[in-house]
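Structure representation.

___
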Amino acid sequence: MAAQTLRKITKAAAGGGRKSSAKGAKTRRTGRPSAKDENVGPQKLVEAARELLQTVAPAMLTAGQVAKAAGADRALIRYYFGSMSNLLGEVAAQLSRGLVTNLSEASSGEGSALGRLKQRIHEFVRYEVANPALHPLYAQQILSGKAPGAKKTLESVAAQGHASLQQIIADGRRSGELRHDFDPRLLDVAIIGLCEFIVVGRPFLDAWATSGESSAHLVQRYADFVVELVSRGIASDGEPA
């Protein structure tokens, strides 16, 4: 009887050890998905997504496509970002910060206020065309508040972006180039709308391009048109410099 009891105790102890071992193995699987991905960090996944978004709409982009482009296990997306949506939120934030940085640089050069405004608008259009996913991602992830840190990103981008335009306006008013009777905030919104819509309107330019005329050339003409339109509206004498 004592021998039987001892065998039961021994068997139970052995089973408990196997159960504990299995639990430990399960816990380890929640870590980094695979050793082969040790050189793939979160930024590489963001860059892979940005590259794919040149030709793929955000709503159509999958975790599998991003993982394949990055040469990684798709589980890394969940490991680093929690979800594909959060990864797209990070892409939106980085694209937005990149735009603000570029606009600030284009706005802070030498020359007249209207000349710097022209540089700003051309850079805005160029950046939008180069990053067609920026506008839909910004609306879906940042403006909606869906992305982690969306409110902070929105406040930062809005403040920095407007500050660089405000500097142009302040300089232009001091030099007598620009009128004093318009609201800089409304001008900012108007420029954003005019420059962002070029991505949505690009198919129209493709369709309207005449023989021997590229849509890329029409994009440049559009940027010039926006510059003239805005300049005539805010220049002190009604005429662009």
